[in-house]
Structure formats: C-alpha cells, structure tokens
Amino acid sequence: MRRTAVRWMAWIVPLVASVASAQSDNAMVDAVIRGAAESQSIARWEAHLDDSRSSRTLRQAFEYGRNREAESAVFNLAQGRDLTVQNEWLRSYLAETGGVNHHLRYLLWLFGTASGQFPGRLEEDVEVEILERAFGEVEREAPTTTALEETLRTPESQRVMGLHNLTTRSTAKIYLLLQSLAGHPRFWDRTFREGDTCEARFGAWTQVWRRGISELARYGMFTELASGHYEHRTYFGLFNLADFATDALLRQRMHMFLDVAFIDIAEFSLYLGTGANHARGGHKSRAKSGGMGSSFEGGLKQLYGEIWMLEPPGMNTWRPPVPAILLRHRHERPVPIYEIANRHPSEYDNRLRSRRYNYAFVTPVYVMGASLFDPNVFNSPRLNRGSFGAWSGVITRDPDGGHRRGVYLDPDYSEGSGYHGSERWYVQDRDVMIAQRWRGGFYQGHSRIDFREGFELVERDGWIFCNNEDEAYIAVRVARGGYDWLTPNQRLEMNDEDSPIIFQTGRAVEYGAFEDFQDEVLAAPIRMDDESLVYTGPNSPTIEFFLSVDPYRMPTIDGEPVQVDRESNYDSPYLQGRAGSCIVTALYGERRWEYDFCETTMREVDPTLVDAGPSFDGGSESDAGLGTDSGAGDHDAGQSDMDTDPDRAAGGGCAAAGGSSHSLALLCVWVLARRRR
Fold this sequence. Notes:
The protein is α+β, with helices and mostly antiparallel strands. It is built from 16 helices and 28 strands. The strands form 6 sheets. It has an 8-stranded antiparallel β-sheet, with no helix packed on it. A hairpin with a 3-residue loop joins strand 19 and strand 20 (532-536).
C-alpha cells in the first residue's frame, strides 16, 4: 500500500508543479496584456491631455514627435465624440500645412473611408483634401503597376524586398496611402500619368508585399538586422502595416512576421530584470550608436506594457506573442544555455537563401555573438545595404543594477565623418569567438577593441581578463603585434591591423574564482604561424583560423570547415525552421506554436493547451505571385543543426503550459493511471 502511494506521489507532484508553472506563465502574460491595454485607457488619455507637461506620445507616431491637438482629435474621433468639431480643427490644420505629414496619415488610416479601424469619421471634404495630397505623393514615389508586375516575375531564387529602415518606412507609408486612395469611391479608378489606376496599382503592390513578407519569414528576416540606431524606424513601418493594412492576408502575415521577429529579439537578449533596458546580443548592422543599447528599447517597453503609451481607445492592434513575453520576463528559461543560428538576408544580388547567419551563445549572465559568413562570397559590391557597419562582442549584466557591460568590436561611428572602425569576419563556437579584419568590407578603419567601464581588468601574458561581478568572465587576446590603450581600460588599438582577436568567455559557476578562470585560459593550447591560428579553449573544441586572404579559407572546428549555407533558417531551442519551409516553429518549454507562412495560419499545437489566439485561415484567398522553391511547400519545421547536451535539455510535464485547471490535472492523472495499468 505504501509503495503504491509513493508511486502515485511520484506522478502527482511533478504534475502539480507543472500546473503551478503554467498558471504562473498565464499570470505573467495576462499582466503584460493588461499593461498594454492601459494605452487605451480613457482616464489616462484624459489625464494626459489635461497635463501640458505630459510627454506621452501616440505609439504609432512616437518616432516623429508630437502634436497635442492632433492627439486630442485622435482621442475624440476614436470615441465618435464631437465629430463636427474635430473635422473643423482638421480643416484649419490642413490650411496651415502642406503635403501629408505623419499626423494626417495617421488620421486618414484610422478614420478614412478605407480604414479597417474607425471608418467614416472624416467628413467628405476633409478626407478628399488629404487624398488629393496623397495622390501626388503616391504618383511620385510608388512603383507603377507594370514595375510591380515585373517584380512578381522575379525568379523564385531571389527575394522581392529587403527590410531596413529607409525602405520599410517609405514603402509602408506609400502603400497605405495608396490603400486609402484605392478604397475611396472618388479615387479608386483615378488614373496616374503612367496610365494605371489606383486600384490596379494597389492590387499589384499587395501581391508583392504578401510574397515579400512570406519569403523573408522563411529565409531570414532583416537586411538591416538589429541596428541599435535604426531599428525603431524599421519597426515603425511594420507596425503600421500590421495595424492598418485592410488586406486580410497581408495583415495576418504581418502579425505573424512580427511575432517571429519579437521572439527572435527576446531569445538573443540577456535578461536584465522586468522593466530594464534589454541587452540583445549577436550581430548588429549599421551600429552607428554602438551595439550596447537600442533606440527601440522604449518601443519594446511600451509594447510589453512595462511603460504605458497612447493608443486610440478601441483600436485593434498587434501585441507581442506569448513565447516572446515569457522569454522577456522569465529569468529562468526552460533551456538556460543555448546557441542561436538564424539566417539573415544580405547579398547584393537579392539571393533568397543568403549564406550568412546571426550566431549567438546565450547564458543567464552573458551573451556573445557575431555574423558568420564566407568572405569569399561577400565583398563591398555584393554586400547588401544595411549589412555593413557591423557590431559584435560580449554583453554581460550587472546583477545589482540591471545595467549592461561588454567587450566588443564597434564600427566606431561619428556624425559627419562616418565609421572609423574596420569590418571583420568571424568564427564562433559557443564560448569562443575569433575575429579578424575583413579586407573586403565596406569600411576599412582602425582595428579597435572596446571595454565598457565597470569591469575588473587584469593583463597577464598577452591576455586581457575581465571580471563582471564575480559572475561572468571574459578573456581577450590580440594574437599578433600587441596593442596600445587609447583610453585606459576602455579602448585599445591593435598594432597589427590584421591580427586575429580571440574572445574566451566563462561563468563563475563553471570556473570558480576569477583567478582560476585566468589560469585555465593561460593553460589552454594556442599556436600561431604564418598560416593559421589554432586555439583550444578550456571547455571547447579546437578552432583553426586561417590567415590567408586571397582567397580566404573557412575556419575549421575540430577539423570540420564551418558551413554558412545551412539547411536551417532558424535554429535555437526557442525558434526553429528549415530554409524555405512554410513552417516556423516557436517553442517554450513544452509549449509549441506553428506559424505557416504559406497557408497564413498560426496555432498552438497541443490541443490540451489554451489557444494562443484565433487561427486565421488565409489559404482561401488568392495569393498569386507568391514565390516558392522546392522547399517552400515542405511543412516540416525541420530539425536543429546543433547537437544537444545536458545544458539544452528541456523539462517535461503533462500540463506544461497555460490555462491549466483542476479538471485538466485530474484528466492527466487519469491518463497516467491508465498508462500504468
């Protein structure tokens, strides 16, 4: 009898713990949703409008400053309040301004005839005046129907668009203005000077956007990836498409794309505490402002409900997905130590399957990463806009204050004189990264290494050792020629511009005291001659980095050449997908979500778990021009290219996800009991 009770307890205790964990996850997600919903609070809006010192802005317009009267008009029009008064103010505003500025665009997309949010709240003469101005802007900037149809004939091996701040902001803006024209009875059949109508041009451009977003989701997302300087501008256009596109297929595809993009941000980011600035690791393109922070941090906090913003009351808008919320807010992740290898498009000829990917090694106390590619494939004429000016390195956390520290290779940009640092190419395997100046890169400045102040620094036998609060350790070695400090303990310049640089990282829980880490690194085998650098870290395979530059020779890891044309498109414990596959899979613990970018559906896979949202079936709509290749119809999420080890082992549990209840627990007990019989 006692033995039977023990067996039952062995089943029930983990089950109860799993249910409790699921309830905790649900509470966290609900808190984020409630926090984000505060953006539409009537009371907060009224308090903001009554306080001339309030600096809150509309989320969709936060980049471009503010206009208190325009905000008041948005607030009242969204509630259907004082429509005559608001339209009268708009007449006055139109008389004072030229063109279609961001306030007028926002009002048109929210309240115009073609709006999917609050249609019909602009009076006819007001809307027509805005549309007349919009017509001229669209005629100047939008591609013609003929050009768009030619784009749709692009071979399936090439992408039809790239995503970086300039094109995303501009093309999204013009597309949505064209949408407003095509949806108005006085403009839909108006002819441009090229001979095509608003309706025809809008239809063709919608097909390009549908295909382009699907391609980028299946082959890598951003040409200008994670730029701390420009990222908020890139997302500005994407949010507008997700919120205002009236084509149901495109809008849902944009929602799914943003879901995957936010999971990507979260998995690359070091947890610094709820409400703290995030610390995203890995490669960062065009890092004019450096790579330690991001201009997008304020937008992230707003979207996660950590600080409130302004949104029109009652607006239907995109919110971050459940896996991104859990990754951002959970310090203890199901897989705490992991690698990420996600492709990003960057080749000048618009090759869809880019031979470049963003790699990072993530731990609870640091993240290290870079962009891995074959320098023989890339050179300045073939490097797509947005891929240069790259940042790479290590970011650590301050366990007390939530601040970021790091050791990194910065492009060193200054306004007016451009980038001063040199481009580099890399090899990395988990806690070891080796970098060298890339002579084919766009920028050929000084070879420098930067150290964010706050570390305990020790220089021993050619190595620079950094201790971050007895929690994370970093060792850096300029392999040849030595270095000089430009700013003591903050910036050094290498005497040999082409010397390889070794980064070795570690955690106190692995190595013990800081001195023990130093001793183990100093004892690690390292050999360098005219041909190559060979290094074997204390807990790492042997990496050989070849020094020839014409042609370059790919590094090897335990004798195997590094492969940059990978079968996977997303490869981590939290995001997976094969190159070209329709399916992108998000994972968190036992939970699993599938995004199908061909059928335009999203679903949480296990039917016993709470639905992650209504499934959208876009397959019935026409999707002419959606390019696919031999892998595009493959609905297999794909297997990870990476080996597994105990650090990456995910936990189990019958009810490992949200919405668990006593009835679900009893059901699990019954199922388990049946299995035991």
